[in-house]
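Dear colleague,

Thank you for sharing your sequence with our group. We've completed the structure prediction you requested, and as agreed, I am returning the results in plain text so they can be pasted directly into your records. Please verify that the sequence below matches your submission; if there's any discrepancy, let me know and we will rerun it promptly.
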Amino acid sequence: MPKSRIRKKDDFTPPPAKQQNIRLTTGRRWVAPLMLAMFLIGLAWIVVFYVTSGDMPVESLKNWNIVVGFGFIAAGFVVSTQWK
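Please find the predicted structure tokens below.
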């Protein structure tokens, strides 16, 4: 019975690495300052409401001032989803 030929396999050469351009400035510089501003406005709104015993920031809203403050904080979290 004849011997089978042994094929020589080519050495593995990995594909060339792709050059990735990493840009830290993606044009969304406004996200972080806006997010922090929303957090701070919401926190300040709630603190002012409690410190003034409900007289400020908007007296006619009464306890709904807390909802407004948490609304600003929630908006800050929504804006934070755009941060890359």
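Summary note from our side: The mean pLDDT is 86.

Kind regards,
the structure core
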